[in-house]
Automatic annotation (TrEMBL):
Gfo/Idh/MocA-like oxidoreductase N-terminal domain sequence ranges: 3-121
Protein's name according to its UniProt entry: Putative dehydrogenase
Taxonomic placement: Bacteria, Bacillati, Bacillota, Bacilli, Bacillales
Pfam families attached to this UniProt entry: GFO_IDH_MocA, GFO_IDH_MocA_C3
GO molecular function: nucleotide binding
InterPro entries (UniProt xref): Gfo/Idh/MocA-like_OxRdtase_N, Gfo/Idh/MocA_Oxidoreductase, GFO_IDH_MocA-like_dom, NAD(P)-bd_dom_sf
Domain GFO/IDH/MocA-like oxidoreductase: 150-243
SUPFAM superfamilies (alphabetical): Glyceraldehyde-3-phosphate dehydrogenase-like, C-terminal domain (SSF55347), NAD(P)-binding Rossmann-fold domains (SSF51735)
Length: 325
């Protein structure tokens, strides 16, 4: 059985998905669209797909069974709802948007349509992350520490807070999601952000160059996440989980895992391609018309987004934000 797949948005992340799909038997990319037609033509040449003149043309249930929506978060419009209403299975890149009310409305349409839905939190598919999650199932941490440091995105829109949401919403969201996935839900968040370097070097942008976010978890743990998208000399993306009788360290975006407890000190390294594993699960889910293989649903993506948007709102209001269960 072959699955006919369309792509809307053909930036760097979309190309990683395409590379993964090309390794999967029965995954046929048949229609592509991007505002930049050269990108669409390039993707079509590599996949044999047809270049469409609009996103609307891609979202034709006579043409495709599933769609990858990889447009920037500010440029989604009603694509998800259109796909859901037409019975087209849906993969959406993270973050899901910048307006939680709009995302919740889309979530309702997707769930009511009964289509398969997946969100691009690919790190959940790493075997190291799965191992950490399994280890924590019957253990209660008391402290969680996370951080993500690195460079900026080259696109001009990314440097506008109203279009990207900033580094936390767009990139460090992976660390937020990893914490949720392995350790449970957040109950409260407080964010503080600064623009020391950007104010001096980039007057037109509005995103922050650093953030310090504190949080509480439903199970009682507390923690922090620090992030910077203006760190040229130190790049790291880690999550550390502390318990009274254990310590877990997911390093390098989850590709490395260290577990220390009374039984010893073990380190594991993942050799998986999370983009491939994620697409393999999505294709299998579409073929079998079941949500079961999917590790990050649209609802999961909405909950991770809710945390990051609340952190931004907390910084604006200068107070902690309680998160809905």
């Amino acid at each position: 059985m072959s699955i006919r797949i369309g792509f809307i948005g053909l930036g760097d992340i979309a190309n990683l998905h395409i590379q993964g799909l090309q390794r999967i038997e029965g995954a046929d990319i048949v229609a592509v669209y991007d505002l930049n037609r050269d990108k669409a033509v390039n993707a079509a040449e590599r996949t044999g797909a047809q270049v469409m003149d609009s996103a609307e043309q891609v979202l034709d249930p006579e043409r495709i069974d599933a769609v990858y929506i990889c447009t920037p978060q500010f440029a989604r419009g009603n694509l998800e709802e259109t796909a859901a209403l037409r019975g087209i299975h849906l993969f959406v890149e993270k973050p899901l948007g910048l307006d939680l009310g709009e995302v919740r409305r889309k979530e309702k349409a997707i769930l009511e349509a009964g289509i398969v839905h997946s969100v691009g939190y690919c790190l959940r598919y790493l075997d190291t992350v799965q191992q950490a999650r399994a280890y924590l199932q019957d253990r209660k941490p008391h402290l969680i520490q996370a951080y993500r440091f690195g460079g900026t995105h080259p696109a001009e829109w990314w440097h506008r807070l109203d279009l990207s949401g900033g580094h936390l919403v767009d990139a460090a969201t992976h660390q937020v999601d990893m914490i949720r996935y392995i350790a449970g839900e957040f109950s409260e968040v407080e964010g503080k952000f600064g623009r020391v370097s950007f104010d001096r070097m980039q007057s037109k942008g509005t995103i922050y160059d650093a953030g310090a976010i504190s949080f509480a978890m439903e199970q009682g743990a507390v923690g922090s996440l620090t992030e910077s998208c203006h760190s040229a000399y130190h790049i790291a993306s880690d999550v550390k989980v502390f318990g009274h009788d254990f310590f877990i360290h997911l390093s390098g975006n989850g590709f490395g895992l260290t577990i220390v407890d009374d039984t010893g000190d073990e380190t594991f390294t993942s050799a998986l391609d999370p983009y491939f594993e994620q697409s393999k699960a999505f294709v299998e889910a579409v073929k079998t018309n079941t949500q079961e293989p999917i590790l990050s649903s649209y609802s999961d993506g909405a909950r991770t987004l809710a945390f990051t948007l609340a952190a931004n709102r907390s910084a604006e209001q200068l107070n902690p934000i309680r998160l809905s269960p």
